[in-house]
Amino acid sequence: MGARKYASVVILQHIMAIIITDECINCGACEPECPNNAIYEAGLEWTISQGTGVKGSFTMADGRIVDANEKFAPISSEVYFIVPDKCTECTGFHEEPQCAAVCPVDCCVPDPDHVESKEVLLDRKERLHL
Ligand code: SF4
Ligand code: SF4
């Protein structure tokens, strides 16, 4: 019973992007750990090109094609946030999400609104680091 429950948790952790909850204390520890520069301080605009190898256009998860240098509005003005289109759950770099590993208040958690397969995450990693 216990082992089956644990297995379910592991599977869930490997098919969802990560989101930062409003429990975040804005310590900044996670931001430098992200291999994709997907983490931003509250209130900052973000681009696909920042901290990645992307130049020219980039296809987002919803199919939109955007300019890599296009500036997007902050996702949160209160706490640090993760850009879903830049998060690969650290696939291809680390065994586990690095933001979650360093967060002192455990507020980097799987995002049920962004369920993605390992293949999709790996493809994003390849496209972000050409
Ligand atoms: S899971 Fe990895 S890629 Fe995603 S935001 Fe956290 S550190 Fe970045
Ligand atoms: S490490 Fe955790 S508490 Fe600190 S900024 Fe990142 S998400 Fe917020």
Overview of the molecule:
A two-stranded antiparallel sheet has the order 1-6. Strands 2-5 form a two-stranded antiparallel sheet. Strands 3-4 form a two-stranded antiparallel ribbon. The chain is globular, with a radius of gyration of 15 Å. It has helices at residues 2-13, 98-102, 118-128, and strands spanning 16-20, 39-40, 57-59, 65-67, 81-82, 108-115. With 130 residues, it is α+β, with helices and mostly antiparallel strands.
**Count of discrete alpha- or pi-helical segments spanning 4 or more residues:** 3
Secondary structure: number of strands: 6
| Biggest sheet overview | 2 strands, antiparallel
Portion in helices: 10-25%
End-to-end Cα distance: 44 Å
- Molecules bound to protein: iron/sulfur cluster
Secondary structure class reads alpha+beta
What can be said about this structure in brief?
The protein has three helices and six strands. It is of the alpha+beta class.
Spell out the blueprint of helices and strands:
Elements: H1 2-13, E1 16-20, E2 39-40, E3 57-59, E4 65-67, E5 81-82, H2 98-102, E6 108-115, H3 118-128
Antiparallel strand pairs: 1-6, 2-5, 3-4
The structure holds iron/sulfur cluster (2 copies).
Name some characteristics of this structure.
3 helices; alpha+beta; binds iron/sulfur cluster; disordered N terminus; Alpha-Beta Plaits
